[in-house]
Design a protein that fits this description.
Length: 103
Amino acid sequence: MQTKAPQDKERAYPPPLTYVKVGLLLGFITAVEVGIFYVQALRGAFIPIFLVLSAVKFALVAMFYMRLRFDSRLFSWLFVGGLLLAAAVMVALMALFQVFIRG
């Protein structure tokens, strides 16, 4: 069994500038979310827009800051499965409590 040298493991992770870029992107997405909240024309589409933006932010944090992008695919599938399950439960609860019915 061959083990990797320490310098190989260090090269597997991105440079610190990548984390700064991801952080700026997360800040930008958050600013977009805040801006969308004040746009009256998008009132009916709040839920889908925020679900998508939240999923993107979750994926970025999980891939880079939790280093799932550089670990086993099993961990990535567990997180994606958890995200999909949570989204399905949230949509089911909103349907159960008739959030989608206007009246």
